[in-house]
Here is the input.
Amino acid sequence: MIRAILVPFRYGLHSSCLALLALTAGCGPRPAAEPASSAKPAATAPAPAHPLAVTALNDHILYFFDGRDPSGKRFSADWNWLDDAAMKLGVGTYVIHQGDRALVYDTFTQPDQARWVRDTLEKMGIRHFTVAYSHWHLDHVGGSGVWADVDVIGTQATRDTLVRSKADIEAGKTWGPPPITPLTVPNITFADRLDFYVGDIKVEMHRIDIHSFDTNVLYLPAEKTLFCGDALEDVLTYMVEIGDLPEHVRNLRKLREWDIARIYPNHGDPKVVTSGGYDKTFIDATIGYVSKMLAHSHDKDFLDGKMEDYVGESLAKGWVHLFEPYRDVHKQNLKLVSDYWKSRPLPRL
Ligand SMILES: [Zn+2]
Here is the structure.
C-alpha cells in the first residue's frame, strides 16, 4: 500500500513548496522519488517547484531530500556555504526508524528543513529521537537547533571541533554567513566505534578519515547498507582536507573491502538513492578521482583539467552521474590540490 501525504514546507526565507511524503507499508519494491508534479495539489498551496521529497526506501529507512532547485533561488548572490557547498548540489538526510523510535542521520542545512523532518516523524507517531552526526561541516549541523532536546551522537573529534568552533559558527564566522543559531554539539561521543540499536535494528557507527578527519559512517550489518555521509559524493568528492587526500585513498580502499550491498550518500543523485542506492563502484569512482587529481597535480596545465578528464570513465560506466553544478566543485578542488601539492613530492598511493 502506498500512502501519499502532502507536507507543507518552507525553505529559508525565500521559497515555499510542498513535500511529497510517499510511504510504503511492508517490504515491496522501493518507490522511485515521485515527481512533485504527480502530487494532487492542495487547494490553497502552490505547485511544488522542485522534487523536495521524503521517500520511504524500505519499511524502516526514510530519505529526505532538498536542493538542486531548478529555479536557482539563493540565500545570497555571493559565494556562501549554504548555496554553493550544499543546496545547489542537493542535500539528503536519512532516518532509521522502528516503532516510535528513530535515529536521524544529520540535521540538514537549516532549522526549517530539520523542523520539516521532525514534524514528519512526529506525524508518523515517532516519539523517541536520537541524532547522529556524519561530521562537523556546517551543511550537516545547520538544523541542529531543532534537536537540542534529544541525545546527539558524534565522534569525539566532531564534538571537540564543534565545541571549539561553536561561538564562531553561531556568529557566522567559520565559513561566513549564514550563522547557525543555536548549534547543538554531540552529548554522546565515541573514538572509533559505537553500536546503536533502533529497536532491534543494529547500527554500527565507524569513525573513518575520509573527506573529513571526524567522519562517522553508519553501517547496517543485517542488510549490508552503508550511510557514508560525505565520504562519497556523486559526481565527485568535495575536497577540504587536501593534505590528507592520500590517507583518504588508503581508507577508501579499506572501505571497499567491507561487505556492502548498497550505499546512501548525503550528496547524491536522488534518482539513484530512491532506486536502490549505489554499489561499491561508487567507492571505485571516488578512489579514481582523488588518485588521478593527485597524480596530475604537477602537470603544467593541471588547472585547466575538465571534470570529464577525471570522472569521464566513471560517468561512462554509470558509477557516478553528471550534474553540472559539480563543475564548480571540481574547479575549486583543482585550485586547492595545486596550491598544496605543487611544491610537494607526489604521494605514493
Ligand atoms: Zn556535506
About this structure: The CA atoms of residues 167 and 173 lie 9 Å apart. The two ends are 50 Å apart (CA to CA). DSSP finds nine helices and 14 strands in the chain. The first helix runs from residue 81 to 87.
